[in-house]
Amino acid sequence: MPLQFELCPGRMIGGSHPCFIIAEIGQNHQGDIEIAKKMIKMAKDCGADCAKFQKSELEYKFSKRALERPYNSKHSWGKTYGDHKRHLEFSHDQYRELKKYAEDIGIFLTASGMDEMAVEFLHELDVPFFKVASCDANNFPYLEKTARKGRPMVVSTGMQSMETIRRVYKTVKEHNQKFTLLQCTSAYPLDPKDVNLSVIRKYQEEFPDVPIGYSGHEKGIYITVAAVAMGAKVVERHVTLNKTWKGNDHEASLEPSELAELVRAIRLVETAMGSPDKQMLPCEKTCHDKLGKSVIAKVTITKGTVLSLDMFAVKVGEPKGIPPENMQNLVGKKIKVDVEEDDSILADMIE
Hints:
alpha/beta; eight-stranded parallel sheet; two-stranded antiparallel ribbon; 12 strands; 34% helix
């Protein structure tokens, strides 16, 4: 059984627990806290477990030159990249307001700490778990400092090699037993041929004591549902209120109707996964009573005859007789009564 742990207060992941569904709002709120609240409410209404943002302390995430460079994209919110990012960044007080709002409506809220100082703030904010973005998966000082804080961690693994992920596993596990690794490909939107869901199985084999999940950037919901069928215990998808809005992530995000359908599909698949024990179920009895086949006399068989396979046929009989899978066991035994051709052979007819 894979490792199980409490990711959020009262919410276990791993093992047979339901998949934990993260609605990644990121910066699709357009820098507007009221839109952010609407998106948190949307995530709650659609059945997601958690609404997630991206928190940066810009001077710690970017160099001065990176912030000062011109940013002429159609998605820009300012003349420089710094102006653009500052427009999209909520203050500490705004994050406190958003966290209280999420608590009031009953959904977990966290954020990716995009630099070490952002992690410090999120720790102070008392988020239930830290999300590590793919861009920090190979930032080992960051990983170690974050792991040492003791909060559960969800680590995306886009843009990394298997060798690096082995180091991630060892680094985090040395300081923190409560973490999960998400298969991820960092492209927006993601072409299905680059999803590589097979990495989920590779991670499950290499890290059997860690719940494995999936962070998807593809269009639609089918691939994410397939990830859950493969055993993903956490899934993350970007969400938006409108795919046509300004911003790089909107096109690869799910609108409310899609998120709601994803949640329904995941819960349906989880129900359908059922048990690995193969047996005839009570719900099959009606079909078996109507169509289940039995061993039938292919010819007239007289009392005392030693039975052989050439005497048997398999048909839907009345009454139900010996199941076909037991037919071989009849060979060499004697029949105690006369049996007419096309009659069922019953267990009490055999010596």
